[in-house]
Amino acid sequence: MINLLTGPKGSGKTQQMIELANEKVKSSNGNIVLIKKSRRDTASLDFNVRAISMADYTDITTLEEFVGFLYGMVAGNHDIETIFIDGILKQANITMDNLGYFINKLDKIAKENKIEFIISISIDKNQLPELDGCEYAFLN
Predict the structure, then answer these.
(1) Alpha helices of 46-129 — where are they, by DSSP H?
(2) At 26, which helix (H) or strand (E)?
(3) What pLDDT, on the 0 to 100 scale, is given for residue 39?
(4) What are the contacts of 122-130 at 24+ separation with CB within 8 A?
(5) What is the rounded CA–CA span in Å between residue 58 and residue 91?
(6) What is the mean pLDDT of each run of 10 residues along the chain (140 residues)?
(7) 71 contact partners, CB below 8 Å, separation of at least 6
(8) pLDDT tens digits, residue range 24-64?
(9) CB of 18 within 8 A of CB of 40?
(10) DSSP 8-state assignment for residue 115
(11) Residue 139 burial (CB < 10 Å; 0-12/13-18/19+)?
């Protein structure tokens, strides 16, 4: 399942993601992962949430490489239960033009591996491209 957290830049989505991750880790039997562009704003993140800064992986520059990174992470750890991706439009070359394609890729990973994705997007939910064929819900 894909859960979307939308809203304009500066509306508190990152803090909301951190709070959701902190809550999720308390009740989870598996691992919780938070992917951010940088390490900024993660001081309040629970120690048991695996924080990944994409600034450490500067060679991942395309949507396909980012998807491959996710597949590799899942292949290396079958206990991942939830993956949070903060600021999806700041990751690799993911744009409004290919966002639907990317979310469909996430949906495939989610279904194949029984993983929940929670992603934040700095846009109004009415601006999202059509997301045919995938299961998603809005958290706001």
Answers:
(1) 63-76, 99-113
(2) helix 13-27
(3) 83
(4) 122/6, 122/7, 122/8, 122/9, 122/13, 122/87, 122/89, 123/6, 123/8, 123/89, 123/96, 124/6, 124/7, 124/8, 125/4, 125/6, 127/96, 128/4, 128/6, 128/99, 129/96, 129/99, 129/100, 130/100
(5) 11
(6) 93 94 95 92 89 95 97 95 96 92 95 96 87 86
(7) 109
(8) 999 999 999 999 998 887 778 999 999 999 999 999 999 99
(9) no
(10) -
(11) middle
Question: Can you tell me the distance from the alpha carbon of 115 to that of 78, in angstroms, rounded to the nearest whole number?
Answer: 10
The Cα 46–Cα 89 span in angstroms is: 25
- Cβ distance 42 to 36 under 8 Å? yes
Can you say whether residue 98 is alpha, beta or left, with left for phi > 0 and alpha for psi between -120 and 50 degrees? Answer: alpha
* Tokens standing for residue 135: 């299961």
What is the reported pLDDT for 137? 92
Length of the chain: 140
Give ∠ CA 13-14-19 in degrees, rounded to 5. 95
Give the pair of three-digit tokens for residue 61: 């520059």
**Neighbouring residues of 108: CB distance < 8 A, sequence distance ≥ 6:** none
